[in-house]
Amino acid sequence: MRAGRLDPVLVAERTIAGIEAADRIIGAFRTVRAEAALDEARAVKVRDDLATLPLAGVPVAVKDVVGIRGERVTSGSRAFPAEPATQDHEIVRRLRAAGAVLVGLTRVPELVAWPMTDSPDAITRNPWQPAYSAGGSSGGSGAAVAAGLVPVAHGTDGLGSVRFPAAMCGLVGLKAGADLLGEADWYGMSMHGSLATTVADAALLLSVLAEEPSLAEIGEPGTLRVAVSTVVPLTRAPVPRPLRSAVDRVAAVLAGAGHRIEFATPRYGIEAPLGILGRWFAGVAEDADGLNESLLQPRTRTHLRIGRAVRAAGLIRPGTRRRWVARAEEFFGSHDVLLTPTLATLPPKAARWHERSWPANAVTAIRLGPFTGLWNLAGYPAISVPAARHPSGLSLGVQLVTTPGGEARLLALAAQLERLNPWRRVP
């Protein structure tokens, strides 16, 4: 489109038609901005700077947590105000400035609290295996990209919410570090990120979200000290063999590329894993302040009661993060990157999870996410990339973590893996 070989309006028309044809099954979008997207595409087409725009006319999906002027933001809940946003969120402003065409808002679980995305209106399904969940809370964004409905999508990640859908749907999912794209939500654990089918696309979108053009220029990783671990924090629960095998496969590929591989595990301890659980409870409760609780789902109301008790007891303490960061810095003093499974268990089935009990949802979430949430607490960047495929057809992802400011390092290493251990882009 920058070169004039593609018409942004035609691309937008085809994208909207594709969403209308497929989304009845996938359930990726809460709102499709059909007319507004076409108007945006027409405006992009005649821009004087079209040839220099990073996302000139590219259809992009936005997670239903940031405001698009004229559209209602719900965070997956009927309790949110019915009035549309009166201005664009900063992330949306940056996408527009880059020439993106915002085709819709993607589905999330209520108050973005769960790693499975569904609502009374739809179940968001994994395009590779629709019997399984697309993950959450950026499940709609992950499903939209994995189904080929849009090439890239925005997500946010408080405990793994970009990396879960990436791992389940065979995508590249990068959670930026807190110093690059962190927000105050969930006591500073929430960060913006990008979902795409290739590392280059994920890097380009991240460069726009962060207003850091250099992130789109992927270099070579050099020789890195890579720690490999499949030890589950706190519980040391057994990791399913296919997930361990995926990590072993990637470790072997990296060793063959000349990286120094060592099996080593950070000193997770007890305090940090319990600290992220407390922030999960209390952060959701904080987000619900001022909402009409009678409109919330039963599982959410239970979660809020626990979260309020955590807040009242003063259990969210800054020292928890400081001590965990000190341990992380100690570990990364002798390693450049940590390689783990993204998920600690295989993905859950697609279902009406919002109708199930709080324990059923909470146990599933806690079992899935021990490898991811600690890096939100630390504020470190992390990426999930496809590594292998389960006999069922599901993608198996691995997580790469590095120190603050290391997004370019992760992208370079992920791009090397994409060359040496390539994956299918769409079903």
Query: Biggest sheet, open or closed, and with what strands and sense?
Result: 11 strands, mixed
Strand order of the largest sheet: 1-3-2-4-6-5-10-11-9-7-8
User: Helical proportion?
Assistant: 25-40%
The radius of gyration is 20 Å
Pfam families: Amidase (PF01425)
GO molecular function, one term: catalytic activity
Family: Belongs to the amidase family.
Protein name: Amidase AmiB2
Overall description:
This protein is α/β, with parallel strands linked by helices and about 425 residues long. The protein has a domain at about 270-310. The chain has 15 helices and eleven strands. Strands 1-3-2-4-6-5-10-11-9-7-8 form an eleven-stranded mixed β-sheet, sandwiched between helices. β10 and β11 form a beta hairpin. α4 packs parallel to α5 (about 165-170). The relative contact order is 0.14. GO terms for molecular function: catalytic activity. This is Amidase AmiB2.
Explain the layout of strands and helices:
Layout (H helix, E strand, L loop, with lengths): L7 H19 L2 E4 L1 H12 L13 E5 L26 H8 L3 E6 L32 H8 L5 E6 L5 H7 L2 E4 L2 H4 L3 H4 L2 E6 L2 H12 L14 E4 L12 H16 L3 E4 L7 H17 L10 H15 L5 H15 L4 E5 L16 H11 L4 H6 L3 E8 L5 E7 L5 H14 L7
Parallel strand pairs: 2-3, 2-4, 7-8, 7-9
Antiparallel strand pairs: 1-3, 4-6, 5-6, 5-10, 9-11, 10-11
